[in-house]
Write a structure and sequence with these properties.
The structure is a single chain. The protein has helices spanning 18-28, 45-50, 67-72, 87-94, 102-109, 124-136, 172-175, 198-201, 204-212, 233-238, 283-289, 292-306, 311-318, 348-357, 379-388, 400-409, 420-432, 455-470; strands at residues 7-11, 32-37, 59-62, 75-78, 98-101, 115-119, 142-145, 165-169, 187-190, 223-227, 244-249, 259-262, 267-272, 275-281, 329-333, 337-341, 365-369, 394-397, 415-417, 438-442. By secondary structure, the chain is α/β, with parallel strands linked by helices. The strands form three sheets. A nine-stranded mixed β-sheet has the order 7-8-6-9-10-11-12-13-14. A six-stranded mixed β-sheet has the order 15-16-20-17-18-19, covered by helices on one side. The N and C termini lie far apart (54 Å). It is found in: Cytoplasm. One of its GO terms (cellular component) is cytoplasm.
Length: 471
């Protein structure tokens, strides 16, 4: 694929880093680049500043999208937040323009085929980073990419060669454009599927269909790792993947299935090519990391195992597993209180998992939650909150999702605040009333657009507030 001399329109610069990396990649490959974004120059100032050495060689069209830009360029590169049914995207398609995104460009230009791609509703960031951790013990030339402000897909190409290991997190927004592509990762992992992004994908089946693109073009020499315990796994299997399927499960796998599972003694068992091998007992691991992370460990183990890393070496690497930022991350502790930042819990299921991690502290668990709705269902969330959270220990940050949470709970009174600082101060005061050491869990169960730029901005501001309030 040749970019030099082509007129290319980048639709959406954004502020999370992916747009900047894509713009620089296109410019360095000789494209005649135009960037269009509905945000103003002031809103995009951090991104424009990162392009200051080349910005005078790029056409910027900000605060507006113009028809002529979609008609006069050869190719349109979409930011992940741009839906395919956008009227300007339709205009470009109808006029025969080539449509790409950062993920499709990555596949077309990456020299390595040693790619592990991870998608799903929950757990994908942890699995991506933990798989990268295990692979680095085998090959230091391993890169973790995608869906994080500091790890855009198109930012490290000068470091890649055919022997590089790449582990990348891929979202449904990125995958939906791969429907007509002809490339795929050597190993694909789908962590699970729950109701999410319905405002974008219109239905859960359409959302699952976008996720299924991750393995659509795999062949018989590739691998697909699926969660046996998730009800949507049968949907993915029904798509008849050409790749070899391995499963992970907290129950003993049927004899005909290969993969990793937890037996009745809490042992993690590998079964590949009809041979079983025991690794660790997960009881201590779950005490430290929570039961939900056992799924993440199994999927990561399998991906590394398929790269030829011995189980003994994988077990050694568990001791140095990284804590993932903003995923149930402990950000403060003293003799009276622990505070965990779980800002990337943008769905009810994510917060349920966090609550279950700390449910042994039922009488001392304080939850800060609430945010922006995306047509999510909070009934199961409400049942979990009623079971494990004292009403006096529940603090809401106002928002459209918060209204749905309160409706699902059906209580008469609520502790609700307009700003995060007030929530934190009230939660700390509540811990002061508890007999034993308390845990404050900031797990919003939703997105954040009404009050923050995104969940990462929300997490950074929460951490600053902890320092401000507690010193």
């Amino acid at each position: 694929m040749e970019l030099r001399g082509k007129k290319i329109l980048l639709m959406g610069l954004g502020i999370l880093g992916g747009g900047v990396a894509t713009a620089r990649f296109l410019f360095e490959h000789g494209a005649k680049l135009t960037i269009t974004d509905l945000k103003s120059a002031n809103d995009l100032k951090p991104s424009i500043e990162k392009l200051k050495d080349i910005v005078d060689k790029i056409d910027l069209v900000l605060g507006i999208h113009r028809k002529e830009d979609f008609l006069n360029n050869d190719m349109v590169i979409l930011n992940p937040d741009v839906p395919l049914d956008n009227k300007f995207v339709k205009l470009a398609k109808d006029n025969g323009k080539q449509i790409e995104n950062e993920l499709s460009l990555f596949y077309k230009f990456c020299p390595s085929k040693n790619i592990v791609a991870v998608t799903g509703t929950r757990g994908k960031t942890t699995i991506t980073n933990w798989t990268g951790h295990f692979l680095k013990s085998f090959n230091p030339k391993t890169f973790v990419l995608g869906n994080s402000p500091d790890k855009p897909f198109l930012s490290n190409f000068s470091n890649f060669d055919k022997d590089t290991n790449i582990v990348m997190e891929t979202s449904s927004f990125q995958l939906e454009l791969l429907n007509n592509a002809s490339y795929a990762p050597r190993i694909a992992i789908i962590t699970n599927l729950y109701r999410d992004h319905i405002n974008r994908h219109k239905s859960l089946k359409e959302y699952a269909g976008a996720k299924a693109n991750i393995f659509k073009y795999q062949n018989k020499d590739d691998f697909l790792i699926l969660n046996k315990d998730n009800e949507w796994t049968h949907f993915f299997v029904s798509r008849n993947p050409k790749s070899k399927i391995l499963y992970f499960s907290k129950k003993t796998l049927p004899l005909e299935d290969s993969g990793a599972y937890i037996n009745e003694h809490s042992d993690l068992i590998f079964r590949v090519d009809n041979k079983e091998e025991k690794s660790i007992n997960v009881a201590d691991f779950e005490n430290k990391w929570g039961g939900h992370n056992t799924y993440n460990l199994m999927a990561s183990f399998l991906a590394a195992y398929l790269h030829g890393i011995r189980i003994e070496k994988l077990i050694d690497s568990i001791q140095t597993l990284p804590q993932i930022k903003f995923r149930q991350e402990k950000v403060y502790e003293n003799r009276k209180i622990q505070i965990y930042n779980d800002t990337t819990a943008t769905s009810p299921e994510a917060t349920i998992a966090a609550i279950m991690r700390f449910n042994y502290k039922k009488d001392n668990l304080v939850l800060i939650t609430g945010g922006t709705d995306r047509e999510l269902d909070f009934q199961e969330w409400a049942e979990t909150v009623k079971k494990y959270i004292n009403p006096k220990s529940l603090f809401f940050l106002s928002g459209s999702a918060t209204e749905k949470m309160k409706l699902a709970l059906g209580w008469n009174t609520y502790n609700e605040f307009e700003d995060l600082k007030s929530c934190l101060e009230a939660a700390i005061k509540r811990v002061g009333d508890l007999k034993d050491k308390g845990v404050i869990l900031f797990s919003p169960s939703s997105k954040s657009f009404e009050k923050f730029k995104n969940e990462f901005d929300r997490g950074e501001k929460f951490n600053r507030l902890v320092v401000e309030v507690l010193g």
